[in-house]
# Entry
Amino acid sequence: MGEIFRARQLSIGREVALKILNPELARRDPQFATKFVDEARAAGRLNHPNIVAVHDVGRIKSATSDEYLHYFSMEFVDGENLREVIDREGTCPQPLVEKVMLGMADALVYAEAMNMLHRDIKPENIMVTGDGRIKLADFGLAQEMDSEGTQADRDEKGRVRVMGTPRYMSPEQARGRPLDARSDQYSLGATLYHLLTGTPPYRRESGRATMKAHVSDPVPDPGELVRVSPAWRSLCMRLMAKSPEERFATAAELKQAVEQAISGRPLRAQNLRSRRQEPPTESPSKGPGRALILVAGAMVVFAAGAFFFAGGDAFDLISEQNSSEEDGGETSDHALAQQRAEDIISSLPADLDVAIAHLNAALANPYFQSAPSAQAMLANHLAELRMQRQERDQALQEQRQQLRQRLLEAQAQAQAHRFQDARGILASFRQEDRQMVDKDFTQTRESIQGLLVARYEYFAERMDAISDADAGAVLLAEAGAEGLPTSFLSRLENARDERVRALEEAITARQAEAQRMVEQRLDTMFEVLGRLRGDGAERIPQFDRFTRLASDYRNRFSEPDLQELCASLVRIAQLAQALHGRVDGFLRVQQPVITLNFGTGPTQARVEGLEGATVSLLFSRSGARTRRSLADPEIDHAHLAKLAQEHLSLSQDHLAAYLWMWGLENSPNFSDGALSLAAQRFSGHAGNESLNESPTSGDEIQTAAAGDGSPTLP
# Structure
């Protein structure tokens, strides 16, 4: 729509940004120039820390024609725009995204209160100052709203004119419908999508196709390209809702949603219908689309109604008629014309194209056509400048070729996954370099960004499949070596941490399940073996079965401590069986005398033998014989076993094992610590309180199919 220059306002000595309307647009449609000035004046009413201020607006007569140039001056912002941040970083860092969205929300709240609509929010129009402030720039398309919003722009023939940038344009704006503040919300949402993903929401081959996508294609999900928090994903997609009714009713609600997203809380489902009613549909029509050209380093000054380029740029002196007196005599017309020609040549601007235009205008002036020497002077200098321009154009062509070659190298580096080198090449382009190959640079940058996103997704997919933290570290190092931007590496690092946490939780769960299974098998073993011990009375220990099952369990357990436990239980059963097999022989041979207490008083009896769970007694006084159960409180089973152990010179562990297997003691005194620990662990295990109860049915101990009476392992 025009050119923007860095300029100095001479009257107060401040730097400004000066925007000049393209004269071609004014010639094509005079209403366009009027609207340009009116809208700039309306924007001049805005005064907000997050909006670039408009200082002045007006028009000035061109130095080379009878046309008027329309302009307005704005606050000069020393910083960079968000498009430059994206080009450098790949995506916008999250802290900056939050600061930008808060600043833009504040700006839109203010603009809405002032009934102003921006109509061209995009990364290029959002500035970050050197001290980190956020400013919305270029209210050159701004328009005042009434209660019904803004009406569509129309040209002098009544056709709808669509204004704005296609990549960030709301559906209603693309269709040429009346707009309200919610149109700016959509453009801010498209900008947010670009900041989060590094790419615009719709990338089509032409502006018309892009506008059509905004109208009819589904709302894009940033989460499909990159990892985005649910809060920012929902905010972005709501801002880009196709219908204004589904966006926020006011900018104040938008600001609340931004603050909510920063706190990490996604938008809750709600009725998105606004109080506003969508205006009637109007048929869209073609409108002019012009790119803004930033001329870096150009210096423009304007003051006291005069408009000219610093250093002698365009100024209207050719039609001026002056005379001077020297020594009281009148200078000839030819001499005066020659002097004027010399003055024009000496004050020509450095820009060859402008200088040539000025010389052409001067040669066309009848004043010089009547002065051959002056005309020849101008013509000769014009020929010299044309030669210089030809040489300049040739040098520029060679420079463009070199720049395009560097772009090809950047593309090749990106395709080889050397993204740091590729981005370094792009970053080395100066502003003037980018302007020289603007289309090629943009295409290469977007292509590299697409390769970056694809490569990030490749690493993200691999990160989701890593087996441990070391594999994640190796993958991160690989991604870093390829030069992925810091924002992508940070997301990969978060993905790694999430994956490692999931793996650790899975390992913990598996270990817990394995431990539960071990405990279950241990419970079963204790239950089965417990039923093979004696009960201290009528149930006789089943030594062989106990030994065989304990050995089987030892083979089934893989845990060393449980294998040692089973081995100790086998050893206890073997020691107990060794003493048990010799107790009856000892009693039959030695026939020890024991004292029994009956109602008539103490009575002595000889123990003649042991059979099962009963003992044979011979009463000394009466000579009578009888059998008594070992469960009889008058029969000291443990004492008889101790007599046999001492007589047979067996170890203390034999006696302890015997007492434990018979159920006479649960924690006997073993000299072997491993045996003592095994007996204590067995006897103290939860659920063994009823182990000494005799089984009441065959179901309590399953027998093997072979019919050998051995309990079957669970």
User: Anything to note?
Assistant: The mean pLDDT is 82. Residues 537 and 631 are 4 Å apart (CA to CA). DSSP finds 23 helices and 19 strands in the chain.
